[in-house]
Amino acid sequence: MKILEWDEEHQLYKFNPLIHWSYNQMLDYIKEHNIPYNPLHDKGFVSIGCAPCTRAIETGEDPRAGRWWWETSKKECGLHSHATKSATEENK
Fold first, then answer.
1. How many CB atoms lie within 10 A of CB 52?
2. Residue 69: pLDDT band by 50, 70, 90 thresholds?
């Protein structure tokens, strides 16, 4: 990712001001400025999504390892589906 990116699909610029911050820098800033955050971060949940798709990561794992960890097992949480047709196609 870059600090400023053009998203062709959505026709907008995306600004990523924290792209070069480490996870610990982010947590330090949150604590220093008393910013509310999800307490699951304190329990090893670095990247948080829906409950069935998210787990705490183990020491040394990639920060995104806790998201969609079950995909290889062919499970489905019910919140995310693999639609075969787009909404536009179905409304024709």
1. 14
2. low
Q: Is the pLDDT higher at 16 or at 53?
A: 16
**Structural domain spans, the chain:** 1-37, 39-79
Catalytic residue list contains 50: no
Counting residues of the chain whose pLDDT is more than 70, the rounded percentage is 73
Q: What is the 3-state secondary structure (H, E, C) of the chain?
A: CCCEEEECCCCEEEECCCCCCCHHHHHHHHHHCCCCCCHHHHHCCCCCCCHHHECCCCCCCCCCCCECCCHHHCCCCCCCCCCCCCHHHHCC
The residue from 77, 81, 85, 91 that is catalytic is 77
